[in-house]
């Protein structure tokens, strides 16, 4: 698919957001109406030790080390990591496009991609980085590409919170866990933040993992399991242990971590063979698995968090379909199934509950990917013989029409969110690899741009610091490419300088 191995020189510095915005927009349809103004919450107990002024871009709230820090509004975590001035820091992108930024923490309780609600505990106060004592440095950005933000005290006061303030009741319910992309290559983060990747070759499934958070990779490890280029899905258990599912035409097996971020079990039988599979996590923490085959789809689910499994149950839907899952902002799972003739979807009628009937979603196609916007609305892309189309939620249950975006014909698709909350889509067919991205959170998309030469499979995942990492496979092996900033990318190279499994 891609050029030969190059030596990795990791650069984790995030570039300015403005550098990546393309000038041309594919669709002229405006983005859906923005949600109402964000609800504000008290960020932390303590006294204001320094106000916002021309020499201080933010407000400081001082208190003891370990004082809880709370999200000032609903949103999605786009950065959770380390930087020199702050030590540990967090950014949350809110539905109105503003960003809240928190610095100098002694502990972080959320990861990139987590959705948080106003008043949810996200960290503990500390004195890391450039600090003379324990405090929270809070910034509010209207546009992070500018050099100065918005006065946080004025921002909060407009929403009914006056500093100093008293936090509410503390942590809120755990945010939704969004499903990882399924396919012949899958990747997800372990509980400690390290990415793990699985690729299904002719001889079985192969596995590699980051040896440190955001860092370099292990060598590929052959695991056995279903061969013949099985379809894979991956999901976390409620206690943080990842679980991998693999299906080919005759076999369905699974294996799981024995402890969070730890070693793995052996393969165990999970069912008969099938066409494709997808896995997601219910609002109550139970994993739910869908699989397609010649008579439609079936599903199976944990009967308790971290626990045993139900029997397979018929679910109807398109036969021998490509399957993906996503999660609505209220925690309900939604399943999308596509074959050459039909595209349908069904959704839970309540979080962790039963399922609706299948509904028509469009005509047939080649492959699909599903993601969520910064404001939580789902976005679906599907490929076919004339390129890639997309369709997005305009409300909780309403959808736009299908819109053409261009892009490669009959491509394999994947998607992920950039560190500032924009959806980015990757497409590969036998001749080319391309990508397109939103010009702003919740906004239309730019023109497709070259991303590599042709291949047979692609998947994307987010590092703990928010940078997207893409894995592409072809007949020569499995490669990867990662963001070195919001707009800049490494070259394609082997994982750990070694060819991964070949995928025809």
TrEMBL record:
Domain PLL-like beta propeller: 181-496
UniProt domain M23ase beta-sheet core: residue ranges: 55-142
Residues of the signal peptide: 1-33
Keywords: Signal
Alphabetized CDD domains for the sequence: M23_peptidase, PLL_lectin
InterPro entries, sorted: Cell_wall_metabolism_enzyme, Dup_hybrid_motif, M23ase_b-sheet_dom, PLL-like_beta-prop
UniProt-listed PANTHER family: MUREIN HYDROLASE ACTIVATOR ENVC, PEPTIDASE-RELATED
Designated name of the protein: Peptidase M23
Organism annotation: Streptomyces virginiae
